[in-house]
Amino acid sequence: MYETIQIANMIKEKYNSLSIAQKKAADYIYKNLGKAAFNTAIQLGIEAGVSDSTIIRLSYALGFRSFSAMQETIQKQIMEAANPSYKAVVSEGTVPEDVPDAFTQIVENEILTLRSLLYKLNAQDVRKAAEALINADQVLIMGYFSAFTAAYEFYLNLSMMRSNVFFYRTSEIEFQRLYNLTDKSVVVAVSFPKHIKDIVKFTRDAKKQGATIISVTDMELSPVSCESDISFTVDINSDNETGLILMSSAMTLMYLIIMSIKTQNREKVIAQLENARNNLAEQDVYL
């Protein structure tokens, strides 16, 4: 699929001039352009069996000013290869003139972030998480600040599909829910920088109770990921000045889990959703 991408041709052209370690890194990147587009230099180095500094030096050897510049080029070329209309969509003149460049950049970055989710997605883990959520005696979901929206939407969707779903809010009363957890319970922790102490403490204590921990976070070594049985890491875009985070990737990932639950438990889920809608209609909720 990516054979004609420019970066692959650049590797071919420069290959003979590379050091032995750089050739090893180049071989890995050539065969794994999807990962090279979104993984960090450290992650690529580990997977390629070289140091992260070798990955960075390779980017210079290929003619880029930095590793980030090489990665940005790979991302754009993958997008164009996967969707030929992408180049036309983001090219000059196709965006309305009254749309600021900053707005365009935000949307383009979010497109790349969602593409990253697609390449990094482990479908087996999605199915495994869905199965755990289906079979749990109770599910407790938690997420604060920037993670709140994604966590609460997941809570709303899941609570329409099964019973005994709770959203954790920090308080002494809520913390008592910890002692009701069993080895058949599931805790879903959504956590992004800056990570909240209360969520880390609760997940750690819940694990001691025997509960299964599912996390959605920003990196494999994040505080909640280290406590998790199933951990999903997604790339996120944020504003450096305000610290505000866009949660599209996390919300999309959690929607995939919801859809996997529906697929695995279709008849029961459809019946549960129909019952929930009927109850809402009886309460005269809808216009």
How does this structure look, described?
By secondary structure, the chain is of the alpha/beta class. It folds into two domains: 6-82, Winged helix-like DNA-binding domain superfamily/Winged helix DNA-binding domain (Arc Repressor Mutant, subunit A); 129-282, 3-Layer(aba) Sandwich (Rossmann fold), CATH 3.40.50. The chain is built from 14 helices and seven strands. The chain has helices at 6-14, 20-31, 33-38, 41-48, 52-61, 67-82, 85-90, 101-120, 123-135, 148-161, 172-175, 197-208, 248-264, 266-282; strands at 139-142, 165-167, 186-190, 212-217, 230-233, 237-238, 245-246. Strand 3, helix 12 (197-208) and strand 4 form a beta-alpha-beta unit. Helix 2 crosses helix 4 and helix 4 crosses helix 5. The longest helix has 20 residues, at 101-120. Residues 85-93 have low confidence and may be disordered.
How is this structure best summarized?
With 287 residues, the protein is α/β, with parallel strands linked by helices. It has helices spanning 6-14, 20-31, 33-38, 41-48, 52-61, 67-82, 85-90, 101-120, 123-135, 148-161, 172-175, 197-208, 248-264, 266-282, and strands at 139-142, 165-167, 186-190, 212-217, 230-233, 237-238, 245-246. It folds into 2 domains: 6-82, Winged helix-like DNA-binding domain superfamily/Winged helix DNA-binding domain (Arc Repressor Mutant, subunit A), CATH 1.10.10.10; 129-282, Glucose-6-phosphate isomerase like protein, domain 1 (Rossmann fold).
